[in-house]
From TrEMBL:
One of its GO terms (molecular function) is metal ion binding. This is Predicted Zn-dependent peptidase. The lineage of its organism: Bacteria, Pseudomonadati, Bacteroidota, Bacteroidia, Bacteroidales. It comes from the Bacteria. Pfam families: Peptidase_M16, Peptidase_M16_C. Coiled coil: none annotated. It comes from Bacteroides luti. Residues 181-358 form the Peptidase M16 C-terminal domain. Residues 39-137 form the Peptidase M16 N-terminal domain.
Length: 428
């Protein structure tokens, strides 16, 4: 019988085995990554197009080009697409990032031929109908106007513009008038430039059978599609960080302030990045972090506060984020700097470091346990331009980092004078 009065023995995680996808090349040259795992008769297809916000010549071009794929094709109307996906129990997601646009399909194996036919049509032959476009734009404009009253959105916008500069792709944000400039022609221009087999890669995960691979090959891999002669260019952009220490955006009706503090920092390819993740986790990367223990648990200033390194095509950005009552903003900023200074001067106790190790290793195990999470992991490797050794190096860093190394990293990167403080809320 299990004695529940005795705590189970804690066993250290020494190794994490992450299944590597089978990497193939389809007949037309499209890279295909196959992750065969799971027992359920379901698969997920991710089509990655190298066309993100970085590439657009007009604000909102990337968002609406990808969003409009499901609003009508040469073979199907928007209503037919929605009805067929619903009938076959499939789910379609359309999303964009700085460098990529994504088309993601979840489908039962037995209906894969039917659902893939729909996805093939929306990728290869969208028509961008004016009526549907008008509806989609108006809906998104309405949501934008709502978001524009929220301090979190205003702070995020001010923070990105302050870090990168308003002319940088990561620092540019749409205004209401930009929604009125979106036309079917501008979306078609973006589509024809970037949506083709020479600018595409595919991931398929789940219970992948030979039949499913054959269907995928027949739909997307046999012949070239789109205008593959178009060259995709990712031009560099100059980062122009503001010289201001404090950036304030006033919102008279705000009941609380949104606070973001940060600076340009190392990217994922930097040698210090792996161990820096451990320091960031201790500082503000999990529920038991220094920031949470001090600012939430001890001081009661906020419900939650976190820190992390956000990655962009040409930079990493260290950011601390929280929301709190307007009168606590200054105290929170002060305490953030106090915690940074403590990590610069004192060694992290062995018990705390061990707890964070176990937390991070446990998160790694949970993140790579299923076929779809494995697909996410390997897409992350591709889109972040990392090597296959990333997971192994991350594991080693968590296992081997010392308190002395963490203090040294804090001294090197936690520089208060380089931090930008962005506050959005009511002026007191």
């Amino acid at each position: 019988m299990l004695n529940r009065k005795i705590q189970p023995e804690i066993k250290a995680i020494e190794q994490i085995s992450i299944a590597v996808p089978q990497r193939k090349t389809m007949s037309n040259g499209i890279p295909l990554n196959v992750i065969e795992a799971g027992n359920q008769d379901v698969v997920r297809v991710d089509i990655l197009i190298g066309a993100g916000k970085w590439h657009q010549t007009q604000l909102l071009q990337t968002l609406f080009t990808n969003r409009m794929l499901r609003e009508g094709t040469k073979r199907f109307t928007s209503a037919e697409i929605a009805e067929k996906l619903d009938y076959y129990g499939a789910w379609l997601e359309l999303s964009t990032s700085m460098e990529y646009s994504y088309i993601t399909l979840y489908s039962l194996n037995k209906y894969f031929a039917n659902t893939l036919e729909i996805v093939e049509s929306i990728v290869k032959e969208p028509v961008f109908p004016e009526k549907e476009l008008s509806t989609v734009v108006e809906t998104n404009k309405h949501q934008f106007l709502i978001n524009s009253t929220k301090v979190e959105y205003l702070a995020q916008k001010s923070f990105a513009s302050s870090i990168f500069g308003e002319e940088h792709p990561c620092g540019r944000f749409a205004i209401e008038a930009d929604y009125d400039k979106v036309t079917s022609d501008c979306l078609k221009e973006f589509y024809y430039q970037y949506y083709h087999s020479g600018n595409c890669s595919i991931y398929i995960s789940g219970k992948v059978t030979d039949e499913i691979l054959n269907l995928l090959e027949n739909s997307f891999g046999k012949e070239s599609w789109g205008k593959i002669e178009n060259k995709v260019l990712t031009l560099p952009a100059e980062i122009k960080t503001t010289s201001l220490k404090r950036v304030f955006t006033e919102q008279d009706s705000a009941m609380q302030s949104s606070i973001k503090m940060g600076k340009v920092m190392i990217q994922r390819t930097h040698p210090d990045y792996y161990k820096m993740r451990v320091l960031i986790t201790i500082f503000g990367g999990y529920f038991g972090s220094r920031l949470m223990s001090n600012i939430r648990e001890d001081k009661g200033y906020t419900y939650g506060i976190s820190s992390g390194i956000a990655s962009y095509p040409d930079a990493g950005v260290f950011v601390v984020s929280t929301e709190a009552a307007n009168e606590y903003a200054e105290d929170i900023i002060k305490e953030v700097y106090n915690e940074m200074k403590t990590l610069q001067t004192e060694l992290v106790p062995a018990s705390e470091l061990e707890m964070v190790r176990n937390y991070m290793l446990g998160e790694m195990c949970r993140s790579y346990e299923g076929p779809f999470s494995l697909s996410d992991a390997w897409m992350f490797i591709q889109t972040s331009h990392l090597s296959d050794s990333y997971f192994e190096e991350s594991l080693k860093a968590v296992q081997n980092v010392t308190a002395e190394e963490l203090r040294s990293l804090a001294q090197r990167y936690f520089n208060q004078e380089n931090m930008i403080e962005v506050v959005s809320g009511k002026k007191l």
